Amino acid sequence: MQKVEPKKEVKTIPPKGADLSEWYTQVCLRAQLVDYTPVRGCIALRPYGMAIWEMIQSEFDKRFKATGHQNAYFPLFIPESLLMREADHVEGFAPEVAWVTEGGGEKLTERLAIRPTSEVIIGTMYAKWVQSHRDLPVLINQWCNVVRWEKATRPFLRTLEFLWQEGHTAHATEAEAAQEVQRMLEVYREVAEDVLALPVIKGRKSDNEKFAGAVATYAIEALMPDGKALQAGTSHELGQHFAKAYDIKFTDVDEKVKHAWTTSWGVSWRILGGLIMAHGDDRGLVLPPAIAPIQVVIVPIIKKGDESVLPAAQRLLDELRTGVRVKLDDRAEQTAPWKFNEWEMRGVPLRVEIGPRDVAEGKVMIARRDTFEKSAVPMGEAAARIAGMLAEVQNALYARAQAYLQEHTAEQTERAAFIEALKRQEGFALALWCGRAECELDIKAESGAVTRVMQGPAPEGTTCVYCGQPARVKAYFARSY
Description:
The chain is α+β, with helices and mostly antiparallel strands. The protein has 14 helices and 23 strands. The chain has three domains: 20-74 and 124-279, Bira Bifunctional Protein, Domain 2 (BirA Bifunctional Protein, domain 2); 296-389, Anticodon-binding domain (Rossmann fold), CATH 3.40.50; 409-478, C-terminal domain of ProRS (Translation Initiation Factor IF3, 2-Layer Sandwich), CATH 3.30.110.30.
């Protein structure tokens, strides 16, 4: 197995455009989001990184509960005999499963899988809990960790152990389950775009790319600065496959015993990795105000003998803290420029500077992290102006990312140009496609890209951009993380 050595933290980060991979790693370290651990492929989530993840988690969680879902928790371990009852699912995850073979100094009589996902164990429990149509729907989500034995790892984007949520629902009808899948996909889109300022494309996955064991998989896909796509959330129609494998049955209103229709859907901290890449710049992290643990930092600039600045900064802190996540950085051991650099690295949306002259003139200086623009604002108006500026930063980050997505999505109608665009890794190539698995494998072999999502149907009488057979769908192709 390939050994991945932890990268050492450096004093400055490289330019984002020169080496996105190294820039990304150093931002994660220097902004104090994560640190490497002695366990290969596993990171420690530092308090600042955890605070951002908790903000994202909160935005998802309140939407899950508003749509009738409840949180629960299920075991980390899955007996091998249970896992093997859904063949397609096992085959899809087999290379990534970690196994426990010994416990308490004794060899286990049956191996235990460390969950790569929880359809198996949750389906087993639903079989106990569902007896009648009155027990349906079951709408449960869990926040947890999972393990997938990856060979090459990178913070947030791909790690052996990662944090996520996974929703699992059971329904009386196929139509109700299908509606649930689309409802949760829309929740994912809403949080990505409205909260994280991360524009996405949503649609159905191809059969080659769908979740192991699913009837259909839908996803949201974001575009990163290097032209690669990032799968930011998935929602799966599982049909009755898992219900039949794990015996989830109920007596319906017609007194007939039927298998339930199930779904699952999940978002991991990978979406945080996408956020870092999409918005960050050469000075470090850039956070949308909606999920910034600190939305405003107040930096007093104190001259020797001055006693006016700190009280003024404290008054502003008291005024802001009822509606804004704000921090007063009054550390005496660090200079103001040092603090400016640190908070820029950590992506705080607004910085308020207060010096003796500002106090004398009754104003403060406010700097935007996204544009570095500075404005002088009367102290009495600062709180109101800051609320408006935070909204401006949020909107500006989305608009900038949306413009990038549009500029790097090109419709392709000719085979040679289509393949060349994919090889150059320019972004999304939108094309008419036949939908055949063999065609997608051929495209991947020639270009390294696959479909990210499909939308459709294709206009009648049109042909596939690659193989020339009748087109069935419009598809977004790209290389991916």
